[in-house]
Amino acid sequence: MGFRLIADLTAFAHFAFLVYVVFGGFLAWWRPWAFWPHLAAAVWGFGSVLIGYDCPLTHLENWARRSAGTAELPSTGFIDHYLTGVIYPDDAVGLIRLLVAVVVLISWAGALVTIRRRSADRAPVVSRRAIR
């Protein structure tokens, strides 16, 4: 029971991380400091998909599944097990990756605009009389 709970909580954390990678950049529109943690998460997320970094959450879930006596995730990993073919069709992987990248880039562009506006709003106004 305990290991199964660990596996389920790990799967939940994995889903939460994926949601954060896709949409977390929008948080920086509201809280500019959030851009940097999102950048790190996005680099890790994209690296794990494109380069093949081993994900510690996948290892933890597999350990918990083994300890609970259930099957591990397939060697293709978390996304292939829980999302591909379940949430979107197998042949849409490339499109989904492109859409995720576009959403992340849009969130970063909006964050940059927001951060620049706030910086401009905080900049001291210098009048012509003060320059003379």
Task: Characterise this structure.
Helices cover 71% and strands 0% of the residues. The chain has 132 residues and is mainly alpha-helical. It has one domain (2-131). The longest helix is centred in the C-terminal third of the chain and has 30 residues, at 93-122.
**Rg from Cα:** 21 Å
The general outline is elongated
Helix content: over 70%
Mean pLDDT: 90
Q: Structural class given helices, strands, pairing?
A: mainly alpha
Number of strands: 0
**What's the domain count?**
1
Order of SSEs: HHHHHHH
Pick out the low-confidence regions: none
Strand content: under 5%
Number of helices: 7
The rounded distance between the terminal residues' Cα atoms is 77 Å
Task: Report the major sheet.
Answer: none
Could you outline the blueprint of secondary structure elements for this entry?
Elements: H1 2-23, H2 27-30, H3 35-50, H4 56-68, H5 78-82, H6 93-122, H7 128-131
Question: Could you list some keywords that capture this structure?
Answer:
132 residues; mainly alpha; 7 helices; elongated
